[in-house]
């Protein structure tokens, strides 16, 4: 549904996990997996905040696959959207770090 600026998100995850020394393939595998998980978490958080009528409108807007319009609509309905995105990424990365620290 909502995709944050992919390049910035990838860089944020790579820096947070200190993946800069890994090969491109290794880094991409981890980062893309985490981006997918974070994206799902963001989608759930957004849908939890929207009323049924707003969800229907979002679905209509999403069909055009215009990221700019989707983001504009969501920003008009959810004032703390950047914080929701940041929190979802932080939680996803944190869970990954905790899981890998145990191994």
Molecular shape: elongated
C-alpha Rg, in Å? 15 Å
Structural class estimated from helices and strands: mainly alpha
Proportion of residues in helical segments: over 70%
Order of helices and strands: HHHHH
Count of β-strands: 0
State the assembly state of the protein chains: single chain
Largest sheet: none
User: Spans of 5+ residues with little confidence (pLDDT < 50)?
Assistant: none
Walkthrough of the structure:
The protein is 80% helix and 0% strand. It has helices spanning 6-16, 24-49, 52-63, 67-77, 81-102. α1 (6-16) packs across α2 (24-49) and α2 (24-49) crosses α5. The longest helix is centred in the middle third of the chain and has 26 residues, at 24-49. It is elongated. The model has no long low-confidence stretch (mean pLDDT 85).
């Amino acid at each position: 549904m909502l995709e944050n600026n992919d390049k910035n998100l990838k860089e944020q995850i790579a820096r947070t996990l200190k993946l800069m020394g890994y090969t491109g393939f290794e880094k991409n595998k981890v980062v893309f997996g985490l981006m997918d998980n974070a994206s799902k978490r963001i989608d759930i958080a957004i849908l939890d905040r929207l009323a049924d009528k707003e969800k229907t409108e979002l679905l209509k807007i999403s069909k055009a696959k215009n990221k700019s319009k989707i983001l504009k609509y969501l920003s008009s309905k959810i004032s703390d959207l950047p914080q929701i995105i940041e929190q979802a990424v932080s939680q996803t990365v944190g869970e990954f770090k905790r899981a890998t620290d145990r191994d």
